[in-house]
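Worked example

This section walks through a single chain of length 129. The input is the sequence exactly as stored; nothing has been trimmed or padded.
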Amino acid sequence: MNDKPTILVGLAVVLLGLTFPVWHSLAPGRSVEPPDLELPAGRLRCVEETPYMRAHHVDLLDQWRESVVRDGNETYVSEAFGESHRMSLTGTCMACHTNRRTFCDRCHAYVNVAAELNCWECHVDPSNP
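Given that input, the structure is written out below as tokens.
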């Protein structure tokens, strides 16, 4: 038996599968640049550096929740800037990021991440009272 055609087809399928993430990201219609976000008026920075917040904002919010609920600590001191902030999603984060659709949802859509925990299930969305 001659298995050469079957082997070649199998190799082609495996190569397409392995390289799919690369060529899919280059497909037209997919922006390579992160979305332009509507930043808070009058604020130049967040509680931490932008790259840290992009990668770890959920971890930071989890730490805040644990610190406030379990330890009674309500003050966060920024590692990057040394500033003190109140550990409050609605009082600190949502005071600046007032529009969920033009800030949170744009980033989550860009990275194709559905929020596992939707903050607005419990907290009031300031753009939609």
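What to look for: The beta strands are 75-77, 84-86.
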